[in-house]
Every structure is written in C-alpha cells, then in structure tokens.
Amino acid sequence: LIMTIRQTNEMVNAGATPSSAEESINTASRNGSLPHQGHDSDMLFVQGLDYQSLFDQCPAALGIAALDGRILECNPEFQILMGLNRDDLLKQSLFNLVKHHQEIFGAMAEMLKSAENAKKLGQLMLQNTAETVKSRHWSGPVVSKRDKQLLMNITL
Fold it and tell me: pLDDT of 42-100, one tens digit each?
C-alpha cells in the first residue's frame, strides 16, 4: 500500500508520460473501468496531494505488513495504539503484537488457496466480480497484546 501511495504521489505530481498514460488506459480497459475524459478539475484536485502526509496524519491507526507479518510502515496513531515507536515497530512481526493470530493465518490460507484456484482456472482475477473481490479481502477484529481492539484488513 505504501509503495502504491508513493507511486501515485509521484505520478500525479510529476505527470504521466504518454507511454505510462497509454498503459494505464489499457490496464483500466482490461479491468472495465476507463478513466473519465475531460475532468481537468478532478486532476487538479489530486495533483499536489502528498499521499505520505495523508497516511501519516490519518486519525485512524494504520499499519502495513508483509504477508509474513513484517511491519513495513505505520502511522503515528498506530504507534500510539501499540505503545511502541516507529523504529521498534518496523522490527516487529504483526503476529507478535496480536493475541489469537490463528484466525488471521486461517483467513490468509483461504485467500491464498482461492487465488491459486483462480490461477489454475486461468482467470487471474481479472474480473472484478463481488465474489472475486471477496476472495481477495478479509476483515475482522483482533485484540492486541495490550488489550486494544483492532480492525484488521488483509488484501491480496
């Protein structure tokens, strides 16, 4: 997510090159969502946004972890909620910070299994159906080791 935020920030602020714009349109058309043409005011609105600052200043506690649980990025609210500073959190595994992480492992296993089944069927999740989206996303409550209620979202 943080890489996507950074890339989006760079693309919006630097402007898209003709080849990257064409590639984006091709990708969007494959996904069935072509961008709206002629909305310069919309582009002006997002141009110049600092997505990293939005992440950092979000009032919700946000943490991004790799599939193996390594924390890749977190905002100040997440640091406060977990009671650790950013440097210490980036050395942690998310699974060391939550109680009863077996449910998370189960959800991840199901998501990976459904993704593998989609590949075997040749779908590669190009369709944006409700069932496909559901199989790539899990959301549920978890409790931190500091007894704080957290909402965890996992997306493939």
Answer: 666 666 678 888 889 999 989 888 888 889 999 999 999 889 999 999 999 988 888 87
Alpha carbon separation from 80 to 59, 64, 74, 138 (Å, rounded)? 11, 15, 10, 24
Q: Which domain, by its residues, includes 139?
A: 98-156
Q: How long is the chain?
A: 156
CB 49 within 8 A of CB 92: no
Confirm whether 152 is domain-assigned.
yes
Give the CA distances from residue 40 to residues 27, 36, 45, 96, in Å, rounded to whole numbers and listed in that order.
21, 10, 9, 46
Distances (CA, A) of 107 to 10, 60, 68, 104: 33, 23, 13, 5
72, 90 contact by CB (below 8 A): yes
Q: pTM of the entire structure?
A: 0.57
Number of domain units in the chain? 1
pLDDT at 74: 92
